[in-house]
Amino acid sequence: MFDKKQYTITMIVFAVGVAAAAVLSLGFQLFDSLYVLIVATAGYLYVKYRISSPLQMFSTKFNLLVDYDLDVEGALAMCKEHLDHAPTKGVEELYRWYYGMAQYYSGNYQEAIRTLNQVELKRMNAIYQVMIFVFIAYAAYEIEDMETFRLQIERIDGSKARIPAKYQAFIENYSEILNALLNRDQALDSYKATIEKHFSREDGYISTKLIYNYRMAAYHEALGDTLEKDKCLAFVIANGKNHHTALQAKKRFTDSVRIEDFVFDINAQTPEAPQTPVADDAKQIETKEPADKE
């Protein structure tokens, strides 16, 4: 990991080296100033690589931990370590966003909201800002804080004009899911259709199946079908480890089926390569909640 100390030392050495080269070039004319520019550019690219490369590896590992391994504790610890040692303020805010997501996946909803609200939005591009609003909304929904939930939907809607055209559909998927959650009791069939559209796919990730069954349990509960509700919850409990959906499912399960009958062999499937949009060359967006494309 390229931490704060390494970054500071690297930048000091880089600045001193460039300054010295500039003095030797301009003051003593020992060599062409073009060489100074070449060296400065090479140094800049090196520092940028030392920052961006770990971010890409971190993003990939985070997705595997929370979506495939369901190791939410590992994801939480990894995020905290990277947050504490982030080399720059901008990178620190990115890790803070991941840390908030990890808290959400761990079922620490209040902490997730608090962490995500602490992210300095001005340091994040428009897509990341929307994703922060999305996960605050998800967390607020789980603790039935509907005022905060509705506010995030409004913030997302107000941010859509700033989203590049190629990411509009991506953001719209989240809006569709959040509005389905908001209007579930008034439009139950629409809620079911939305959940099936985004989470019934076979992508090889157990988290997708957990979310599908967790959300469908709410559908069956609204219909008053306890047996089907418990089947969905049993699947989540049997396969979810300490994922937040499993923790919540245990609170709503009424023992009408045997949990052990719903164990799923995740090793029988191979996950798809992540289809995540990239905001820039240094950062990836975690997207396993909704489908990335229709």
Structure write-up:
- This protein is mostly helical.
- The model is unreliable at 273-288 (pLDDT under 50).
- It has one domain: Alpha Horseshoe (Serine Threonine Protein Phosphatase 5, Tetratricopeptide repeat).
- The chain is globular, with a radius of gyration of 23 Å.
- The longest helix has 37 residues, at 33-69.
- The protein contains 12 helices and 2 strands.
- The chain is 68% helix and 2% strand.
Strand order in the largest sheet = 1-2
Strand/helix succession = HHHHHHHHHHHHEE
Q: Tell me the overall shape.
A: globular
Question: Whole-number average pLDDT?
Answer: 83
State Rg.
23 Å
Q: What is the first-to-last residue Cα distance?
A: 37 Å
Secondary structure class reads mainly alpha
Low-pLDDT sequence parts: 273-288
Entry keywords:
294 residues, mainly alpha, Serine Threonine Protein Phosphatase 5, Tetratricopeptide repeat, two-stranded antiparallel ribbon, 2% strand
Report a brief summary of the structure.
The protein has 294 residues and is mostly helical. 68% of the residues lie in helices and 2% in strands. The chain has helices spanning 4-27, 33-69, 72-84, 89-105, 109-118, 126-142, 146-159, 168-182, 188-199, 206-223, 226-239, 244-252; strands at residues 278-280, 283-284.
Write the layout of secondary structure elements.
Layout: H1 4-27, H2 33-69, H3 72-84, H4 89-105, H5 109-118, H6 126-142, H7 146-159, H8 168-182, H9 188-199, H10 206-223, H11 226-239, H12 244-252, E1 278-280, E2 283-284
Antiparallel strand pairs: 1-2
